[in-house]
Amino acid sequence: MIASVTAWFAGSxxxxxIGGLLLISVIPFTLIVIMPTxxxxxxxxxxxxxxxxxxxxxxxxxxxxxxxxLSILALIIFLVxx
Length: 82
Known about the structure:
Elements: H1 2-9, H2 14-24, H3 26-41, H4 51-81
Helix pairs in contact: 1-2, 2-4, 3-4
């Protein structure tokens, strides 16, 4: 993030800043959006073969897909801008 902001301030395209923001957005997304699902999945009383567990795992997978897309978009932006 610091490198992308520095590059932008040094006169590079706004895309460097956007790429950095996308990359850093993965951290709050993980902590705010994914972490509650992780905690539910790690609950001691959760039945491993229940429908609730299957739904939580499905939801967890979708959330990780979003996180992966954010990271991949940042990578593409950085690769195109170099």
